Amino acid sequence: MKSTFTIIWLVSAVLAARTQSLELPSEPCREWLAGKTGRDMLLSACETTAGAWAAAGWTTQGANGGEDILLLVAKNSLDSLRSYQLGRQGDDRALSVQPAFDGSLLVAGYSTKPPSRYPASKRYGGKRDGWLLFLSENGQAQREILRGGPDDDVFVSAFALPLGGYLVCGNYGAQAWVISFAPDGETLWERKWQYHGLYTQITHAALQPDGTLGLTGWVMDKEQKNMLWTTIDPAGERIAEHIFPQSEATDGGRIIALPDGGWGICGAAEDEVLRSNGIFYRLNARGLVEAYRSFGGREADQLHDIGLLYNGKIALAGSSKSFSRGSRRDRAWLLFEEEDDDWEEIFFGSKMDDAALFITPTRQGFIT
Length: 368
What we know:
Blueprint: E1 6-12, E2 14-15, E3 22-23, E4 30-34, E5 40-47, E6 53-59, E7 68-74, E8 81-86, E9 92-99, E10 105-112, E11 128-135, E12 141-147, E13 153-160, E14 166-172, E15 175-181, E16 187-193, E17 199-207, E18 213-221, E19 224-232, E20 238-243, E21 251-257, E22 263-271, E23 275-283, E24 289-295, E25 301-308, E26 314-320, E27 331-337, E28 343-348, E29 360-361, E30 365-367
Antiparallel strand pairs: 1-4, 1-30, 2-3, 5-6, 6-7, 7-8, 9-10, 10-11, 11-12, 13-14, 14-15, 15-16, 17-18, 18-19, 19-20, 21-22, 22-23, 23-24, 25-26, 26-27, 27-28, 29-30
């Protein structure tokens, strides 16, 4: 069985005060290797309210049976790294991690129903339910929310709200899904929908300070995949929704909320000649396109995450085979916005397949 290890890179990027441009190193300044034999993946990271940082994903070498959630926590000095595994007697994964205002961590993902001999199985709505965990920084589960129906369901993003409560986004079978929870976990409102009756999936979400929610994902129409964009107001009403031309984007990846009320999106575009390219959109507050870029070469290239650096510029993270023509392996691929729509790119990796699945800014640089 092929083993996939989690490597965390701390990259120190020097910010030039006058030009606001980044001076990037050729190699990471620190590296951690986490995981065991098997597959270990980290998909999301955040800075905690205490100034430390946390990353979440999943491992196939779960201590509880099947796949387990993998949580890594580091102090703000970045000189230590602790790992935790959480799960039940089935496959469980974390797709995002965000800080809550009380100092806990919100981990969103899914949990597979354990066998009927386990009492917890009675709390599941179907075979696989959306799972929201409230964790302490030492990996202890404080409470949980399970929601689902007869089909496979998942939470992909979760947010703590300033006035209390939580907003959770994901997929209810073949429908997009958003739930607003009160602080005690009671459902305030719930929305499920499909884009014009088509198979609809949400891949990520971001929240503006005014409570406006932006979601990206994809819809399937006659075996054709198109990237989807949806904007929802604080009351849960859709105020904008559209798909993008297949030639530009086939799958939405991650989103960030921009300071001007707009949005940044990364994703992918499939091409018969170029295989796949990473894409970037900048949308205004109404969800209309202000800028679009496609990145990559003649090999398979993908962008997995997007971040906003402390200088206000966009950073993109992914994997690329185009660093070397005809390459059969992936390298971690980072792109950084500069002036006049220029972008700088760097590659990291070993002699194995490598990918940057998230990028989280720090005051020293960023973690990927």
